[in-house]
Amino acid sequence: MSAQLPREPSLLSMDVKTSKKIEINHRRNKELDHTELLDDAAKNFNYADCKDSYWNPEKFSLLHGTPLWDEASESQRVLLNQLYWVAYYSQIISAEIATIFFNQTSAAGLFGLNDFRGVCDMLDLESAQERAHINAFFTVSEKVEEEVFGQRIFSYDMRNPYAQTMIFPDTNKLKDVWRNVQLRSYAVLSSGSAFIASQYFTVRGLRTLNGKMVQQRLSQFYQKDPNKENLPIPSAISYYHYMDESFHFNSSCIIGHDVIRSLPKPTAFETLVGNMGILGCQKDHSNFSVVVNGLFWYEPALFESVYKILRSNIFNMCDREAKEMMRRCFCQENDAVHASFNTMELAIESYKKYLDPLDYVNQGNKDLALMRKMSIEKYLNTNKKAFQKFEVPAGYESNHRAQVVLS
Ligand SMILES: [Fe+2]
Ligand SMILES: [Fe+2]
Q1: For labelling, which of 6, 49, 185, 380 has a CA lying 20 to 30 Å from the CA of 176?
Q2: Could you confirm whether domain 31-391 is CATH 1.10.10?
């Protein structure tokens, strides 16, 4: 005698369109997977082979549009272009370390419902790809900094996912501890609630939207060049990475926007946690920078790195010259300040569209109210205040926080 077990078909299995989207996105990502190409690129990278060429479109150069850029020689500009790559992808490494972890905790939360195996398998592939991405970014960044400066400027030792995701944040010891507690709590909550798990992908989607704005342009540098085999390996890495990431962005949209309809309605607590996640994301994205055009980077946290670059034998500046140049770049209006603020405004509009269809998101988050508080005036005032402290010469030269490469 066979008994019928009491199992209702899940909402996800009845949503044929979304189930199909998940299956196609996973299958195509597996077919086109760029892991091997990225691993080979990392293995074959030799800085000497590409040290004289641009790796990105010119606009994607460190401090592009600042007085430093305007007055730089051609060879200095080439290096600023390469350093943009190093700095940008050093930030991506940190974001992807967090992604690997929260893909897993969120998959655990979603796997607690019937018929979610497809979603979880898709996320497993993405996490494995992120490890290859990180390896490629790490390999190139460390080799460049080692050969050019003999010390770290933007790169860092491997870190765990509870570290600050922004590598140059507006922080202090207390804020670091608080962020650590928040991330640990989020890990536990997302692994135990399908709704909170699905909302991780709304936050991931916002971050990827931002990444897409830059990475699409970086990838085109390689994609549009007919002479691909002669292009620098880092340009190829940008392209391979973007190819994988376009599938990750799709999966963020599918889980954050479509799968959410197949989940039980969120409780008041889950709604609160979902909104807190988006607010945290707004906070992380509420600074803009002229060092790396765009969001994430808190300018005063970058002063030391920029100072090291100016004092290195690439720019050969003395202490006074370096600080005067930094004052002109960070404390006065210039083209770069406007260009970066413009990037922020574009990001706000695209985030708004992304969040609009989500019922549970509160008005403050839908309007990106926190990000909108930033202005050029506020940016310059923050920099001026922080720069005054940075400039104080007393003990500076002997202070080992600036172990500069003196020429
Ligand atoms: Fe990635
Ligand atoms: Fe990704």
Answers
A1: 380
A2: no
